[in-house]
UniProtKB/TrEMBL annotation:
EC number(s) recorded for this UniProt protein: 1.17.4.1
Gene3D superfamilies xrefs: 3.20.70.20
Its biological purpose: Catalyzes the reduction of ribonucleotides to deoxyribonucleotides. May function to provide a pool of deoxyribonucleotide precursors for DNA repair during oxygen limitation and/or for immediate growth after restoration of oxygen.
Cofactor annotation: adenosylcob(III)alamin
GO molecular function term, any single one: ribonucleoside-diphosphate reductase activity, thioredoxin disulfide as acceptor
Domain Ribonucleotide reductase class II vitamin B12-dependent N-terminal: 41-131
Cross-referenced PANTHER family: RIBONUCLEOSIDE-DIPHOSPHATE REDUCTASE (PTHR43371:SF1), VITAMIN B12-DEPENDENT RIBONUCLEOTIDE REDUCTASE (PTHR43371)
Name the record gives this protein: Vitamin B12-dependent ribonucleotide reductase
Organism: Nocardioides renjunii
Family statement: Belongs to the ribonucleoside diphosphate reductase class-2 family.
Domain spans labelled TSCPD: 736-840
All residue ranges annotated as the Ribonucleotide reductase large subunit C-terminal domain in the record: 152-687
Keywords, sorted A to Z: Cobalamin, Cobalt, Disulfide bond, DNA synthesis, Nucleotide-binding, Oxidoreductase
Top-level taxon in the UniProt lineage: Bacteria
């Protein structure tokens, strides 16, 4: 093919990239610079108790989380489990991929010499093993194995108005689903049901053919797994069957409700859900500027025959737009794709228009094409001084985009047409994850001008650097085969990117520094591209990064904000931990809060799941901690504005859903769709909470079944003839006549007081007396009454921990500085009193769970990275610092132990401590933990593999337990 000849010419010239080491160290292999440990990976379906996977003694870096190692072991290690052929170390996995890429780079003339190839291999290895980036899942599945070397996750197919083409669509889509990927296509070439066939009969229309494809997808599943296939179906807004297409899934949702209420199991994956159609695809309407202007103006819009292009029906544009929004309100489908915007940024219009996208809407290119993806972990480039290392980020992009292009040289594809198009146009999809965590750590609100300007600058730098390297590669191994006929259009789009970069409004030092490098990168793109052309028709997208996000230990996926402020984390050796996001303490420190204030705020978040009314937190800082869900959830337009900030700097689009609350109106959805078009987005999908019935419940049954069970239980209870009533009364444990007591004088915000506390013989607190205000005053009387109430409660068995958790962090005057070295700042007198009581009467472990430490313990943390005493009588501290062996450590029992276990970052430095507490509920994932904390349901499906609740990731869902996704990643 043309591309192969071009590559060989490049190799024959003796050109090649000369590479300098940036990340790795000369003379030291990246593996030798980190500590490795052995772990056991055992995965169970928590609902059935069945062990679904087991592999013991796998090898990973000690700083990789349990989730990351579990997901990589179960998803990416190749070979039959229990045989010698099975991979057991991350080293084997990375070597399998990186060495394949390096060899292909040498064979195809990408490197100036063997030394440069070695540098490339070491740099790529360093970036992967240290979780700076990841390729998309098919690379890990296939590269370096006997299987076909498929590297792409995203495919766009094509179907024409003939039965041969339609049946071929079914076949090609089936093979893609079988391989575990997803595909999208536009059905608008198929004649409508309002047009005649050449035989004189009436055409069936595209919606009827969607039924066959939907049944095929539901039968084949995806990758042989139990989850549904990922697919996108698009129809142009001027197609005569557009109204039928718009209403397909909304009508089916009505059917689901009716069948559910009749007692059928209509949950996703339920026994009866297969009777419902069109559930295996995302639907999108491809709208034009002409249609959107007609909506604005309230004018008519023509629907056109597929064969002749003549208008055969006229509709009211606003009425059709209303029906689209109404259907989306009812069932989240259809989304919108903005055709003129998409094709205005198209680098290959001479070859053909862009008519469709992949299932998650981020890849938009020619029909019969594919895209391989890779994503960077943005938080890795945030330095200790909380500045973004833009230069290092750009260097990483250069290495990654080079590797991605090399992969096309050896890749296999599911169809010949897709292979030809991909080799001729070499579409790439570099992107990033952890934007939400990065902005929070930098003290920037996701829905703020500062947050958007930072996101825009980073995205611009990423794509500018990618096209710069693409132009450099074109000078070495030649431009893509389709470049010559599209050269002017491609260069025009490059100028559009540069112009968009020029109008970015920087608001602070950090985004200004990144933007400056981006500006230089785009200048180099124009200059080098003019001379060499470009190696790649596309360079960047923003994908969901579901499974690979876990591989990189990212807090947030893709362009998404944080899902919630509290995370569910698995621990080495078993057990789990509820932790407050690690970026929160860093953000608070960046904002100027002191350590004790940070501890109090984090403890509040751990209990409540949000920052509203957190002690000492300024209200103007609330926006920095806004999340996708919860008390401070982002407004719908906050999502739209962030996408609009990044979109001008992407070759493709963005996988993201605009979340709306359950009480959102159809008018609000209309506004989201309209504003998305005005702001220049290429696609928009919405999801209104609880709009879909077909979501699995924890009991695996439908609502009708649950109601029937509840009635049966009630009937059984009514039949009970005898009820034995047992009354449990608390017993008061009075203090001895002579007891040990201590009196503490204190000052809080200038107000003086005294506290006397008395203890039982075993040392537990039994009474408290407070002296505050003049004798006989109202304040003194209230304090006396309060003291009696607390003392009686203690003697009747109310744990001191309960009082401490309830009364610490109360905020009222007097407040401020105290004269107690252990409690330097206090939100109120109550806050001080119960912190002091905790320090005097609670164990270290109990105080740690509450985030309360003495001055000596805080000093120890500064010196050693741990609050815990170096030597414990139980020997637990010694056990914690033992070197890792092939046997897992015992489950930890306290937050302090958890912190001690995971205190190193990727560079071997001490990581910041994050207050944590053992998870005592039934939660298995962050989504379930969020539901427990807030009492709010997360409207997402259960994982078909391990039974836990998934959480949103872009336009898809991802399982924290096993890494399974509902999309194409």
């Amino acid at each position: 093919m043309t591309e192969t000849v071009s590559t060989r010419k490049g190799a024959a010239k003796g050109k090649g990239l000369k590479l300098e080491r940036v990340f790795s160290t000369e003379g030291t292999h990246p593996y030798d610079a980190i500590t490795w440990e052995r772990r056991d990976v055992v995965q169970q379906n928590w609902k059935t108790g069945e062990t679904v996977f087991e592999q013991r003694g796998v090898e990973f870096p000690d700083f990789w989380s349990v989730n990351a190692s579990t997901i990589v072991t179960t998803k990416y290690f190749r070979g039959a489990v229990g045989t010698d052929a099975r991979e057991w170390s991350l080293k084997q996995l990375i070597d399998r991929v990186v060495k394949t890429y390096t060899k292909a780079g040498l064979d195809n003339g990408y490197f100036a010499g063997d030394a440069d190839a070695e540098t490339f291999e070491h740099e790529l290895t360093w970036l992967l093993v240290n979780q700076y980036f990841s390729f998309n899942s098919p690379v890990w599945f296939n590269v370096g194995t006997p299987s076909p070397q498929q590297v792409s996750a995203c495919f766009i197919l094509s179907v024409d108005d003939s039965m041969d083409s339609i049946l071929n669509w079914y076949k090609e889509e089936g093979f893609i689903f079988k391989g575990g990927s997803g595909a999208g296509l536009n059905l608008s070439r198929i004649r409508s049901s309002k047009e005649l066939l050449s035989s004189g009969g009436t055409a069936s229309g595209p919606v009827s053919f969607m039924r066959g494809a939907d049944a095929s997808a539901g039968t084949i599943k995806s990758g042989g797994a139990t989850r549904r296939a990922a697919k996108m179906v698009v129809l142009d807004v001027d197609h005569p069957d557009i109204e039928e297409f718009v209403m397909t899934k909304a009508r089916e949702e009505d059917k689901i409700r009716a069948l559910r209420d009749a007692g059928f199991d209509m949950d996703l994956g339920g026994a009866d859900i297969t009777s419902v159609q069109y559930q295996n695809a995302n639907n999108s309407v491809r709208v034009t500027d002409e249609f959107m202007r007609a909506v604005e103006d309230g004018t008519d819009f023509g629907l056109r025959a597929r064969g002749t292009g003549e208008v055969i029906e006229t509709v009211d544009a606003r009425d059709l737009f209303r029906k689209i929004s109404q259907a989306a309100w009812e069932c989240a489908d259809p989304g919108l794709q903005y055709d003129d915007t998409i094709n205005d940024w198209h680098t290959n219009p001479e070859t053909g228009r862009i008519t469709a996208s992949n299932p998650c809407s981020e890849y938009m290119s020619l029909d019969n094409s594919s895209c391989n993806l890779a994503s960077l972990n943005l938080l890795k480039f945030l330095k200790d001084d909380d500045t973004f290392d833009a230069a290092l980020f750009a260097k990483a992009v250069e290495f990654i985009i080079t590797a991605m292009d090399i992969s096309i040289c050896f890749a296999d594809f599911p169809t010949e047409a897709i292979g030809d198009t991909t080799r001729d146009y070499r579409q790439l999809g570099i992107g990033y994850a952890n934007l939400g965590a990065l902005l929070m750590a930098m003290g920037l609100g996701y829905d703020s001008e500062g947050g958007r300007s930072m996101a825009a600058a980073i995205t611009s730098l990423m794509t500018g650097t990618s096209y710069k390297r693409s132009a450099e590669l074109a000078g070495i191994v030649g431009p893509y085969a389709g470049y010559a006929r599209n050269a002017e259009a491609h260069k025009r789009v490059m100028r559009k990117h540069q112009a968009a970069n020029d109008v970015v409004r920087v608001l602070h030092t950090e985004d200004g520094r990144v933007h400056k490098l981006a500006t230089q990168a785009w200048a180099d793109v124009i200059k080098t591209g003019e001379r060499n052309g470009f190696r790649n028709a596309q360079a960047s997208v923003l994908a969901p990064t579901g499974t690979i996000g876990f591989m990189m230990d990212c807090d947030t996926t893709g362009i998404e904000p944080d899902f919630s402020l509290v995370k569910f984390k698995k621990l080495v050796g078993g057990g789990s931990m509820q932790i407050v996001n690690q970026t929160i303490p860093r953000a608070l420190k960046k904002l100027g809060y002191q350590q004790e204030q940070i501890e109090a705020i984090v403890a509040y978040i751990a209990e409540h799941g949000h920052v509203v009314d957190a002690p000492g937190l300024k209200s103007e800082h609330y926006e920095i901690f806004d999340t996708a869900m919860g008390a401070r959830s982002l407004k719908p337009m906050g999502h739209v504005r962030m996408m609009a900030a990044a979109q001008p700097f992407l070759s493709g689009a963005i996988s993201k859903t605009v979340n709306l609350p359950e009480n959102a109106t159809v008018e609000e959805i209309e506004d989201v769709y309209l504003q998305s078009w005005k702001l220049g987005l290429k696609a928009t999908a919405i999801y209104r909470d609880n709009c879909k019935v077909g979501q699995p419940l924890s009991d695996g049954g439908g609502k009708a079944k649950k109601d029937a069970a509840d009635k049966a239980d009630a009937a059984a209870a009514a039949e009970t003839k005898v009820v034995e009533k047992v009354v449990y009364a608390p017993v008061r444990k009075r203090l001895p006549k002579s007891r040990t007591a201590r009196t503490t004088s204190f000052t809080v915000g200038g107000a003086e007081g005294y506290m006397t506390s008395g203890a039982h013989d075993d040392g537990t607190l039994g009474e408290v007396f407070l002296k505050l205000g003049k004798q006989g005053s109202t304040l003194a009387g209230v304090m006396d009454a309060f003291s009696i109430a607390v003392s009686v409660g203690l003697q009747y068995g109310v744990p001191l921990e309960t009082y401490v958790s309830k009364f610490t962090n109360l905020r009222f005057e007097p407040a401020g500085l105290t004269d107690d070295p252990d409690v330097r700042m206090s939100q109120s007198i109550m806050d001080y009193i119960f912190r002091r009581l905790a320090l005097d009467y609670l164990s270290f472990e109990d105080r740690s769970a509450l985030g309360i430490y003495s001055a000596e313990e805080r000093q120890r943390h500064l010196e050693t990275g741990s609050y815990e005493p170096l030597v414990e009588e139980t020997g637990s501290a010694a056990e914690l610092v033992e070197p890792a062996t092939s046997s897992p450590v015992e489950p930890v029992e306290t937050s302090a132990e958890f912190i001690e276990l995971e205190t190193k970052d990727t560079h071997g430095n001490e990581a910041r401590e994050v207050p944590a507490q053992m998870s005592t509920g039934t939660a298995k994932t962050t989504a379930e933990l969020f539901e427990q904390l807030t009492g709010t349901a997360v409207d997402s499906p259960l994982c078909m593999t391990c039974g836990t609740k998934m959480r949103p990731a872009g336009s898809c869902y991802v399982c924290e337990g096993c890494g399974s996704t509902s999309g194409c990643s």
